[in-house]
Design a protein that fits this description.
The complex is a heterodimer. In chain A, 39% of the residues lie in helices and 13% in strands. By secondary structure, chain A is α/β, with parallel strands linked by helices. In chain A, the strands form three sheets. A six-stranded parallel beta sheet of chain A has the order 3-2-1-4-5-6, sandwiched between helices. A three-stranded antiparallel beta sheet of chain A has the order 7-8-9, with helices on one face. A two-stranded antiparallel ribbon of chain A has the order 10-11. Chain B is of the alpha/beta class. The two termini of chain B are 37 Å apart. Classes of the chains: A alpha/beta, B alpha/beta.
Chain lengths: 431, 404
């Protein structure tokens, strides 16, 4: 066995998944599968530098905002001689995965790749439509090599349809997906997000798991398609329902809500310190009034209903802010929650990194990385009582698992492996 | 291809948004999902949107979206008889999903450990705000709280308050993650006959999401720096580029134009002024002459319908897309050509338009077999056929208010 053998764990223990993903969406899917115990093998090529996945090959250096912003993604703000191994963007989701290099654009590389496919149960990719086919590894070829392969393809607009070949970044697809017109400040200032990547991860994993369940019956693999935009739209299904029911564009509510009032984000004592709260019921409204000292202005009987409070929301916000402004977000939250009111501090990454609840539940794991050192990493997004997720290694460096994959999985001889190094298939540096 | 979860029985004790989205995904891909509602119904029934803005527990757009393909059975699990029925149903189920405050199930005699002891292959998934243990265990959560505690600090404009995402997106993503964990545990149960308890906390699904939060957390560990608010927003407000109105009155967006794409854009626009500036400045034209770029872009967009503009730019390798809002989405040419929108008639809410498959397994696997259930629509059938109760017994329980 290789020196860092993956311990057997998780419900997908014994299953192997090829990761041909770029950037984050597909990589989030394979991370979830790795946390469920699958052996995920990221396949890269030394001849193709994947900027969307590993960041700039030569990161900008300097005191300008762009350089400083880029530097924060590297340990001690230092990209180092191998920035592709040191990028938080990649390392945050690649822990628990393996990494092998082979140039599948060449005959021998493609042949090695198909030998690996024979040893695997799944393949996940989120490249633009047609890329696998162009590389000569379309689904028919893959299923010929391994009929049991569950293939998950995650193009932004699906595999077919008039605009399926359209490309773009997250911000394009959020606008196409209808998010930006309903997201942001009520005064009209729009706020973007990169929600699609976060939504696509579980979608791809769910598609894979359902494919796996079907394969138990039939013994055959299949192609699962995740249209990332369609999946994202399902996450605002209540808003598309509103559009269809009432033939209108839903309001841009900002931090307010059509169902709860008051609801908002309120300034607290401290720099950029905020607490949020929602009042869902009239009982919670009474509780909130008591918590903030029962100000006279909030005793009007009209405020006993959601409709009344919605009309007077600005005045209510002023009273709430008067109370929160002298408290820290956590103090305010604890008081509000003790009274049964949904509330929470706005937690920065720094706050969350030292959060007692997350640490108490074992969410963060210390992992040692050959190039980055030892850092806390966010762990699995779920707990399973009998087959608990394990964080068994930090993100792999480029080609870290070449020997394991080539020799132990594919059965390449020592002599042949030397040739693969000489030919630029196996290696640990981009060409 | 038949539906992948076609032979599974799921007992659904979830409410609001996150848990119901988990069981919706199971139901939409073929599982038989028995939604057990308290006598007053899932509180999401009281949340809008409503047709004509008239509140009606049978017409909540949120509820109708999240409860497709489910059967509704009204049982009060806080009564001994009600809990007994739930126990009986759990005894024949593959999966039970619940979203009560931790400890509630145990207090009703429905402790997940006991349910699994009785039915060793059962997967019990708890989808809760903060999980089954930890100092915040008993705290309440809404959509805005979920986002506040996991990423809202970077959402918005610097100097203003952080702002939440659209609708209930964060809670729905948490439910989708709960579905992942549940299917993982189910696969183990199918392979080894061993069930287990799955503990999903929205606090963790959100801090662990790759809507950037997970990545920002490691950046903080690496360099001690916190992402700025607007870090992801800046992408949408470039000096040159952005949204432009087209001949059909709809908009297209270029987003922030990537340096690699500027040349392709210039070639397609083929404007004499812009060509000269491009030859002189290259990519810097975007920062040095944004007014020229924007003028040419506006003229180009105004001369063609939005969809044609998108396709023309895309054919030149330059990412431009149409801008939709939820209303425009319903008539989006691409989504409609794929048959994404599914029309169905609901007995109380009338004609509905549902979003279709979030993914496909093989040829499809997703189906809208029935719209969301009216309250208690399936109580009698389920109590008779699955719980094995006689008609007289059901009537007696109904008189006592245990079922409805």
């Amino acid at each position: 066995m290789s020196h860092d053998a993956k311990p057997p764990f998780g419900p997908l223990n014994g299953l192997r998944v090829i990761d041909l993903t770029i950037a984050l969406a597909g990589a989030f899917t394979t991370m979830l599968l790795a946390d469920l115990g699958a052996e995920v093998i990221k396949v890269e090529s030394l001849q193709h530098y994947p900027t969307p996945t590993k960041g700039p090959r030569v990161p900008p250096r300097g005191d300008d905002p762009v350089s400083l912003s880029a530097a924060r993604d590297y340990p001690d703000s230092e990209p180092g001689p191998d920035p592709w191994n040191r990028l938080s963007w990649f390392n945050s989701q690649a822990r628990n995965k393996r990494d092998v290099t082979m140039d599948i654009t060449r005959v021998r590389g493609r042949e090695l790749f198909l030998r690996l496919v024979e040893k695997c149960d799944g393949l996940v990719e989120n490249n633009s439509v047609g890329l696998l086919e162009k590389l000569g590894i379309g689904p028919e070829v893959l299923h010929e090599a391994n009929p049991r392969l569950v293939i998950v393809r995650m193009p932004p607009l699906g595999l077919w349809g008039p605009d399926s070949t359209a490309t773009g970044f997250g911000w394009h697809f959020e606008d196409l997906g209808g998010f930006l017109r309903v997201q942001g400040y009520p005064d009209g200032v729009e706020v973007g997000s990169i929600f699609m990547d976060g939504a696509s991860g579980p979608a791809g994993a769910n598609a894979f798991l359902m494919g796996l369940i079907e394969r138990r019956r039939t013994g055959r693999g299949m192609v699962c398609e995740v249209s990332q935009v369609e999946n994202m739209v399902c996450h605002i299904g209540d808003l598309t329902m509103e559009a269809a029911m009432n033939h209108r564009v839903p309001r841009r509510w900002g931090n307010r809500s059509p169902d709860f009032a008051p609801q908002g984000c309120y300034r607290c004592a401290g720099d950029d310190a905020w607490v949020v709260l929602s009042v869902r019921t009239d009982a919670e409204w009474s509780a909130l009034r008591r918590v903030i000292g029962d100000p006279d202005s909030l005793r009007a009987p009209g405020l006993d209903t959601l409709a009344g409070r919605s009309v007077m929301h600005d005045a209510i916000d002023d009273e709430i802010t008067r109370w929160t402004a002298t408290r820290t977000p956590m103090d305010a939250t604890e008081t509000l929650q003790a009274a049964g009111i949904p509330a929470g501090p706005v937690l920065s990454e720094a706050d969350a990194s030292s959060d007692p609840h997350l640490h108490g539940r074992g969410f963060f794991h210390l992992l040692e990385h050959p190039s980055c050192g030892t850092h806390f990493h966010a762990g699995a997004n779920f707990h399973l009582s009998r087959t608990p997720p394990q964080l068994w290694r930090a993100a792999p460096t480029l080609g870290q698992d070449n020997e394991y994959v080539y020799k132990e999985l594919i059965g390449v001889s020592d002599d042949e492996y030397v040739e693969l190094i000489a030919e630029g298939h196996a290696g640990t540096d981009y060409v | 291809m038949p539906q992948p979860l076609r032979d599974l029985l799921v007992i659904d004790l979830t409410e609001w948004v996150a848990g119901p989205n988990c069981t919706k995904l199971l139901a939409d891909f073929g599982a038989r999902v028995i939604k057990i509602e308290p006598p007053g119904g899932d509180p999401a029934r009281k949340m809008g949107p409503f047709p004509g803005d008239r509140p009606d527990p049978e017409c909540s757009g949120l509820f109708l979206h999240l409860n497709t393909n489910k059967e509704s059975v009204v049982i009060d699990p806080s009564t001994a008889e009600g809990a007994g029925i739930v126990r009986r149903l759990a005894g024949v189920a593959d999966i039970l999903v619940e979203s009560f405050r931790p400890g509630t199930m145990a207090a009703w005699g429905l402790d997940p450990v006991d349910l699994i002891t009785t039915n060793p292959k059962l997967v019990v998934t708890s989808v809760t705000p903060f999980g089954q243990a930890g100092p915040y265990r008993d705290w309440e959560m809404t959509e805005i709280v979920a986002f506040a505690m996991g990423g809202m600090n970077v959402s918005g404009v610097a100097g203003r308050e952080p702002v939440k995402l659209a609708g209930n997106a964060v809670l729905m993503q948490s439910g989708a993650t709960a579905c992942t964990a549940t299917l993982g545990a189910l696969f183990h149960a199918l392979e080894h006959g061993e069930g287990q308890h799955v503990d999903v906390a929205t606090f963790e699904t959100q801090n662990g999401s790759l809507d950037r939060r997970r990545y920002y957390l490691l950046s903080y560990e690496y360099s001690g720096t916190v992402a700025e608010r607007a870090a992801v927003v800046g992408a949408g407000r470039p000096a040159a580029g952005g949204r432009f109105e087209c001949a059909d009155g709809k908009m297209v967006t270029t987003g922030r134009i990537w340096p690699d794409h500027v040349g392709r854009m210039v070639r397609l626009l083929d404007d004499p002024d812009l060509n000269l500036l491009w030859e002189e400045h290259g990519v810097q034209v975007m920062s040095e002459h944004p007014e020229v770029v924007n003028r040419v872009l506006a003229g180009w967009a105004a001369a063609r319908p939005s969809r044609a503009a998108m396709r023309e730019a895309q054919a030149h390798g330059w990412p431009v897309v149409v801008v939709n809002d939820p209303l425009l989405l319903l008539e989006d040419d691409h989504l409609c050509a794929r048959g994404f929108w599914v029309e169905a008639r609901h007995p109380a809410a009338g004609e509905l338009v549902y979003p279709g498959p979030p993914w496909r397994v093989g040829a499809d696997g997703w189906a809208l077999r029935r719209t969301a259930p009216t309250l208690g629509h399936d109580t009698d059938v389920v109590l008779r056929e699955l719980a094995g109760l006689e008609v007289d017994r059901i009537a007696a329980l109904r008189a006592e208010g245990v079922v409805a």
